[in-house]
Amino acid sequence: MIKSLIFVVLLVVSECFVLQAAAKSPNASTEEELLEPQCSNLKRHEIESHLSTKTPYRVVANLDDKPITYPECRATRIWSVIRHGTRNPSKEHIEGTKFRLVQLKEQILKNPQTKLCPEELIRLRFWNFNISSEEEKYLTAEGEDELQELAERMQNRFPNLLVDEYDPDLYYFKYTKTQRTLKSAESFTSGLFGKHGIGSVEYPEALHKDPVLRFYKLCKKWQTDVDDNPKTFDNSKRFLQEPEIIEAVNHMRRRTQVQNITAEDAKLIYTICGFETAWYPQQDPSVWCSLFNTDAIRAFEFFEDLEYFWNDGYGYELTHRMACAAMKNMFEYIDPNSNKPNATFYFTHSGTLLKVLAHLGLYKDSEPLTYRDFGRERAWRTSVIDAFATNLAFVLYECDNGNGPMILTLHQERPIRLPGCPQDQDLCSLKTLKEKYNRYLTSCDLEEICHIHQEHDEN
């Protein structure tokens, strides 16, 4: 009886001690979070739909592939620019993962106070990262599937335009000088013609600095004034100091009970969470995603939205103005009197798609995005507009109703209505579209736009 009484007293005292410690802890959010391990309650869709430019295409794909038809009109031409599919990380992220995340893995597993649940700890124990730096940015199996399936759906929508036998007079394909766009092009063409039919497909010489597919690589002014300009990243860096990111990092520290996790660590964890989740649609999301809660993963998504807004979107006029190079090419190839092939498909990169979208005036918020805007609704969400395999297409319809040539614009395989075009119908006349973008097209001289005017020192 006395032993039982002593045990109860000790139990009460110990519980009081733990609760006092929890109450005093500056990092504590809830007593439950400190008292016992719990599995992350993040669902797959809550992760996959907030991975910024590492979002797998399956999240945004339009699986409705029935033919797109309009009365008295027939689709006769298509011009499309497509981002490569899901890929491996960059060399920087591969090396960072093999060093820092392996280090964190060991710290978490050795810490008896960790709040990860047993299932998460087992998954973490068996986690490894076997990608070599030589395979940086290579297209993955999921990326191949994304492009092949995209082609199959596009062919189903436009069966008379996208015939299933390759003919160089009908088709033109081009990719940049990278493995990921080459493999994306091959996967897309296998979706159109079958794996047996891609051997005869012709491609022009691939260029690293392609004036249409990667125009910004030829623009020294943009590289100097925007890409290499520290001010471009002021808002994203400021956001790292905001309460949302600070709380996200503290949440990770509480979950793992590893107190030396930094914001830079959390950025890397978010990146690898994204890649590993994108790679394997049939498996659980990356174990690193379990370190986030809903607010934390959305905070890092917003951080990336800020970076891309200022570097590749509306932050600087030069950034989207130079995308006139791609649009000029589109109007040349889509013209009903053009002698170009009927179907043009370019395989390129995130930077191209975002600049073209901004050039078109799409997903533009009423005010520029700043580090203070985390809580506001925004149109500029890279998870939606720039996932892996993001695609933009212009389809020419020739009609018998006297309206002249019409254009259907598709983004992520869905009709989208451009600024300046009728907002109550999918089709916009080619004439209206040319008038809307004429001032950019007539002054689209990349050499002039991108020329750096030297300032002479009067002293």
Global mean pLDDT: 91
Instruction: Write the element-wise H/E pattern from the N-terminal end onward.
Output: HHHEHHHEHHHHHHHHEHHEEEEHH
Distance between the termini: 96 Å
What is the CA-atom radius of gyration, in angstroms? Answer: 26 Å
| Uncertain regions spanning at least 5 consecutive residues | 1-32
Strand content: 5-15%
Tell me roughly what share of residues is in helical segments.
40-55%
For the biggest sheet, the summary is:
7 strands, mixed
- Name the overall outline: globular
Question: Which structural class should the secondary elements be placed in?
Answer: alpha/beta
Count of helical segments? Answer: 18
Question: What is the total tally of β strands?
Answer: 7
Key terms:
single chain; 459 residues; alpha/beta; 7-stranded mixed sheet; 9% strand; globular
